[in-house]
């Protein structure tokens, strides 16, 4: 092994490579950190020389364990029991989670804005999660536990504040888009890609992993096509306070024609929202005063869409028009108290300062996740509508699948960068991801329309329960992985 590396180092010297690695991971998001932690935790792959490169700073992730921010950050995800189990059993990192900042919840109530009786409650019994449907957890908490585990093991290099500037194929002077050809074993040089970094270093790697998010430079380098579309919607996120702690541990999601609005529980009276909305509405949501924002969330969870549209119209003209406060309170006062308590989430009382942000929503799926010496994981491979809270979870199952493929390759003494080894990763993860992407896309399309015939059909369908069954089935499929 050592002999081989030394020999290869000599061969690559002409390309001015400062280092050779077995695996270079681009991206220090949840997917990239998971992969590094998983590779270093498996006794079959822990000998591999690994470097992770992250363009941004990981400082706030490093300090999170010792000194977390006072309030919840606004990037919060819902982790499935499968993802938690993976981090527990395979990565051995769950022990580093900040326990005070996670919230187990047992069910979700989803309801339609157009049809009062269209409600689905689904819970852990439908997904065999041992009484737990999912865990709400900040992204940074997940990244922090992964980094702690990586530090504990030692023996790998993390370069943050370091951008990948270019990726070149050693046999060609420029970026090579034709990686579909099998590497030539007879080639005198090494066919491993060379990653050029902003710190001046160049690393040549046996396997290059793109965990570099939606715009994935690694995907572009490898010439893998990605297909999909922008939804023309933004996901507005915010950290909020409820009027008091909701002991029901329920997540709520209301399907509005502008997109679904979800209120998900955090510890005590803290909670988080994801509000998929049109560009125009998301603009309003970011501009209005905190007081108006809070009223808007409460209104959007309960009032008719005609009323909401009227209120949006007022705020579009003037986002500081406080007349909407009375308007909303008056309209909400017409709903029976018992109904409010039973069928709707607790009212929101406060939005945490500076926690509002928005993200463009899109769906995309790479045609494949591998090319010779390249693999894609996480959002680099797929992006999904957040309505089922699955994006990060899909990244976790990618990591599980890739590590399994690499373990098999190592066991059989094969080159872990070869497509022969990598193919089983694709065949084990691509179909399930494709199904899930399709399901969430369908759910988005069924609900996010005010195209009248479809709304009408939805109403009738929901009443006759056929549609409700279809939707329920889709929802269960999207949550039960
Ligand atoms: C509104 C919203 C709500 C969501 N809710 C949920 C949820 O409830 N549950 C869930 O599971 N998922 C959810 N998601 C999805 C989830 O956030 C993403 O799927 C997840 O963060 C993707 O992780 P990743 O590591 O693949 O990519 P990213 O987090 O995008 O990380 C990619 C990293 O690569 C780095 N990088 C990129 N280019 C370079 C370069 N050239 N050089 C060096 N570094 C580079 C970037 O700096 C970045 O840190 C949500 C998403 C949105 C938008
Ligand atoms: C959640 O809310 C409670 C009470 O309002 C507070 O004491 C606690 O620290 C909060 N947690 C976080 C992380 O903000
Ligand atoms: C945390 O939230 C509380 C309650 O909204 C607020 O008073 C406080 O200023 C926040 N702290 C920070 C550091 O933003």
Automatic annotation (TrEMBL):
Compartment(s) where it occurs, according to its Swiss-Prot or TrEMBL record: Mitochondrion inner membrane
Domain FAD-binding: from-to ranges: 22-408
SUPFAM superfamilies found in the cross-reference section: FAD/NAD(P)-binding domain (SSF51905)
Entries under Gene3D superfamilies matching the protein: FAD/NAD(P)-binding domain
Main location: mitochondrion
Keywords assigned: FAD, Flavoprotein, Membrane, Mitochondrion, Mitochondrion inner membrane, Monooxygenase, Oxidoreductase, Ubiquinone, Ubiquinone biosynthesis
Pathway(s) this gene product operates in, as recorded in its UniProt entry: Cofactor biosynthesis; ubiquinone biosynthesis
Reaction catalyzed: a 2-methoxy-6-(all-trans-polyprenyl)phenol + 2 reduced [2Fe-2S]-[ferredoxin] + O2 + 2 H(+) = a 2-methoxy-6-(all-trans-polyprenyl)benzene-1,4-diol + 2 oxidized [2Fe-2S]-[ferredoxin] + H2O; a 4-hydroxy-3-(all-trans-polyprenyl)benzoate + 2 reduced [2Fe-2S]-[ferredoxin] + O2 + 2 H(+) = a 3,4-dihydroxy-5-(all-trans-polyprenyl)benzoate + 2 oxidized [2Fe-2S]-[ferredoxin] + H2O
This protein's GO CC annotations: extrinsic component of mitochondrial inner membrane
One Gene Ontology MF term: 2-methoxy-6-polyprenolphenol 4-hydroxylase activity
Family indicated by similarity: Belongs to the UbiH/COQ6 family.
Free-text function comment from the UniProt entry: FAD-dependent monooxygenase required for two non-consecutive steps during ubiquinone biosynthesis. Required for the C5-ring hydroxylation during ubiquinone biosynthesis by catalyzing the hydroxylation of 4-hydroxy-3-(all-trans-polyprenyl)benzoic acid to 3,4-dihydroxy-5-(all-trans-polyprenyl)benzoic acid. Also acts downstream of coq4, for the C1-hydroxylation during ubiquinone biosynthesis by catalyzing the hydroxylation of 2-methoxy-6-(all-trans-polyprenyl)phenol to 2-methoxy-6-(all-trans-polyprenyl)benzene-1,4-diol.
HAMAP family recorded: COQ6_monooxygenase
PANTHER family per record: UBIQUINONE BIOSYNTHESIS MONOOXYGENASE COQ6, MITOCHONDRIAL (PTHR43876)
Name this protein carries in UniProt: Ubiquinone biosynthesis monooxygenase COQ6, mitochondrial
Gene, per the UniProt record: COQ6
């Amino acid at each position: 092994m050592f002999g081989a590396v030394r020999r290869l180092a000599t061969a690559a010297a002409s390309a001015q490579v400062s280092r050779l690695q077995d695996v270079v991971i681009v991206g220090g998001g949840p997917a990239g950190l998971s992969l590094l932690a998983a590779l270093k935790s498996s006794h079959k792959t822990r000998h591999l020389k690994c470097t992770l490169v992250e363009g941004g700073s990981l400082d706030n992730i490093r300090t999170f364990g010792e000194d977390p921010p006072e309030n919840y950050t606004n990037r919060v995800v819902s982790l499935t029991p499968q993802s938690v189990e993976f981090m527990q059993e395979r990565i051995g990192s769950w022990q580093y989670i900040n326990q005070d900042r996670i919230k187990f919840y047992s069910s979700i109530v989803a309801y339609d804005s157009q049809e009062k009786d269209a409600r689905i409650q689904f819970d852990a019994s439908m997904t065999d999660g041992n009484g737990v449907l999912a865990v709400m957890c900040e992204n940074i908490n997940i990244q922090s536990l992964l980094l702690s585990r990586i530090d504990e093991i030692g023996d790998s290099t993390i370069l943050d504040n370091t951008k990948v500037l270019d990726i070149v194929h050693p046999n060609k002077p420029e970026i090579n888009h034709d990686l579909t050809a099998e590497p030539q074993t007879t080639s005198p040089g090494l066919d491993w890609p060379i990653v050029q970094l902003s710190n001046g270093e160049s690393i040549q790697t046996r396997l290059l992993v793109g965990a570099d998010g939606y715009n994935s430079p690694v995907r572009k380098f490898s010439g893998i096509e990605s297909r999909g579309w922008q939804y023309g919607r933004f996901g507005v996120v915010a950290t909020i306070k409820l009027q008091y702690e909701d002991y029901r541990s329920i997540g709520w999601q209301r399907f509005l024609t502008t997109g679904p609005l979800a209120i998900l529980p955090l510890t005590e009276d803290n909670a988080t929202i994801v509000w998929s909305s049109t560009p125009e509405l998301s603009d309003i949501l970011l501009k209005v005063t905190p007081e108006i924002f809070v009223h808007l969330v409460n209104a959007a969870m309960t009032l008719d869409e005609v009323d909401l549209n009227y209120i949006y119209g007022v705020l579009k003209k003037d986002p500081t028009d406080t007349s909407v406060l009375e308007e909303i309170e008056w309209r909400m006062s017409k709903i029976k108290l018992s109904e409010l308590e039973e069928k709707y989430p607790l009212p929101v009382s406060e939005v945490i300062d500076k926690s509002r942000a928005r993200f463009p929503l899109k769906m995309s799926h790479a045609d494949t996740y591998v090319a010779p010496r390249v693999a894609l994981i996480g959002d680099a491979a797929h992006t999904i509508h957040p309505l089922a809270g699955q994006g990060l979870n899909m990244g976790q199952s990618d990591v599980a699948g890739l590590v399994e493929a690499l373990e098999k390759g190592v066991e059989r003494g094969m080159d872990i960068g070869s497509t022969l080894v990598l193919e089983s990763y694709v065949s084990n993860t691509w179909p399930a991801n494709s199904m899930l992407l399709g399901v969430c896309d369908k759910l988005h399309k069924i609900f996010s329309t005010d195209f009248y015939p479809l709304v009408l059909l939805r109403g009738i369908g929901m009443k006759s329960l056929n549609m409700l069954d279809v939707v329920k089935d889709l929802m269960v499929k999207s949550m039960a992985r």
